[in-house]
């Protein structure tokens, strides 16, 4: 007699061509973060798709960003499983060389978002379909798709973060369909990171006839930049002052200067300590007549491992091995993702379970065509194998 896993895997095998066609469709529907109408169109397409699967759906349209989509199956006795992804991409419409969907002889497909992370959206939908077909009824399956992840949710003024966390609340495990790594490994930890604006104000004066009456905002900013870079510690926090704007003329003592400060941190505690150090630097005046303000940090918190992350990974690894698909490892990534918001709720999360490839955020973005099916099988098997304790 066939097991639920046998039935689900056979179903995925039969659907392989359908999966590829849906992948092509969602990639051709280009969705730059800053084009809410384009994201709306994809959200509506996937909303219809989820309804056809018998799922309840909800769309959320924050001001300034495209529509988010959540969908869910019937409630069950055990805690739900969350499938998390995003619909937006970094590529402006029409900017990808060779067109939006190009299959090459290397077995890969090239296109905007093909790896980050539209292939993952297809995997999520077909994992749900396969589990439904096999009669899976132990857990509710929840799908949550964000609309402005690539901007760290700045377009929606972080309303999307609240929406995602509301959807995720109470889930026993989460899987995030970010770009899969070439070797099939999964991400269990990620650095956090963000950008803030440091603004220095001074006193303008003629640089030739009355320099003593001025207070140079640029000079003070330069001193602060040196102090900030001196804080960098690769084991905890790194800093980069990447953009500087100040002054109006070489003949004028500048009364204004702005510096964009980027930080990357290993833990959220590291971030708190870094912000305290930056505020101290900001409050320390070395050039009389100047003062400084530090804007809010805009970005992602760190994705930290929960008490049960290792246990969840063990389930996923064992499922992959049992299918003969290899032994995936765990990776600590410097890139940020929405997985940080599920781990902040204490939900064990595996990230980067999408299609395998490379080149995301570049015009070489590509993914392996055969990984669509194998990644779907890995995750289907892992969900079926989840212990009741999750």
Written description of the protein model:
The chain is an alpha+beta fold and 390 residues long. It has two domains: 4-190 and 302-384, 3-Layer(aba) Sandwich (Aminopeptidase), CATH 3.40.630; 192-300, 2-Layer Sandwich (Alpha-Beta Plaits), CATH 3.30.70.360. The protein has ten helices and 19 strands. The protein has helices at residues 4-14, 16-28, 36-52, 114-133, 159-168, 217-229, 268-283, 309-322, 339-343, 371-384; strands at residues 56-60, 68-72, 78-86, 102-103, 108-110, 139-146, 173-176, 186-190, 192-201, 205-206, 237-246, 252-253, 256-265, 291-294, 298-300, 330-333, 349-351, 357-358, 366-368. The protein has a six-stranded mixed sheet with strand order 1-2-6-3-7-17, with helices on both faces. Strands 9, 11, 13, 14 and 15 form a five-stranded antiparallel sheet that branches. A four-stranded antiparallel sheet has the order 4-5-19-18, with helices on one face. A hairpin with a 7-residue loop joins β1 (56-60) and β2 (68-72). α1 runs antiparallel to α10 and α2 crosses α4. The protein is elongated. It starts with a helix and ends in a 6-residue tail after the last helix. The mean pLDDT is 97.
């Amino acid at each position: 007699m066939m097991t639920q896993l046998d039935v689900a895997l056979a179903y995925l095998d039969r659907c392989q061509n359908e999966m590829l066609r849906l992948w092509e469709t969602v990639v051709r529907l280009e969705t730059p973060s800053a084009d809410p109408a384009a994201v709306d169109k994809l959200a509506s397409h996937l909303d219809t798709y989820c309804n056809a699967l018998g799922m309840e759906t909800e769309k959320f349209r924050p001001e300034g960003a495209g529509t988010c989509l959540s969908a869910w199956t019937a409630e069950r006795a055990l805690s739900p499983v969350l499938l998390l992804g995003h619909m937006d991409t970094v590529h402006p419409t029409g900017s990808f060389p060779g067109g939006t969907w190009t299959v090459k002889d290397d077995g890969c497909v090239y296109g905007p978002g093909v790896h980050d992370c539209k292939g993952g959206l297809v995997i999520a939908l077909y994992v749900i379909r396969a589990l439904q077909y096999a009669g899976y009824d132990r857990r509710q399956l929840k799908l949550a798709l964000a609309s402005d992840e690539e901007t760290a949710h700045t377009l929606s003024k972080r309303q999307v973060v609240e929406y995602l966390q509301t959807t995720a609340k109470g889930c026993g495990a989460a899987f995030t369909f970010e770009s899969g790594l070439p070797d099939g490994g999964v991400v269990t930890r990620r650095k956090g990171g963000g950008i803030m604006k440091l603004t220095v104000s001074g006193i303008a004066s003629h640089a030739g006839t009355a320099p003593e009456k001025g207070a140079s905002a640029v000079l003070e900013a330069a001193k602060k930049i040196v102090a900030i870079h001196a804080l960098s510690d690769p084991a905890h926090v790194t800093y980069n002052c990447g953009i500087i704007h100040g002054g109006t003329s070489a003949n004028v003592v500048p009364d204004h200067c702005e510096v964009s400060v980027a930080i990357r941190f290993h833990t959220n505690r590291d971030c708190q300590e870094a912000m305290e150090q930056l505020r101290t630097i900001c409050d320390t005046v070395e050039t009389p007549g100047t003062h400084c303000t530090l804007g809010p940090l805009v970005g992602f918190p760190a994705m930290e491992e929960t008490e049960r992350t290792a246990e969840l990974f063990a389930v996923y690894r064992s499922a992959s091995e049992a299918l003969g698909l290899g032994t995936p490892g765990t990776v600590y990534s410097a890139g940020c993702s929405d997985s940080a918001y599920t781990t902040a709720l204490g939900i064990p999360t595996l990230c980067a379970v999408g299609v395998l490839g490379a080149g995301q955020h570049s015009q070489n973005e590509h993914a392996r065509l055969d990984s669509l099916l194998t990644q779907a099988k890995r995750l289907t098997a892992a969900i079926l194998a989840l212990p009741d304790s999750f």
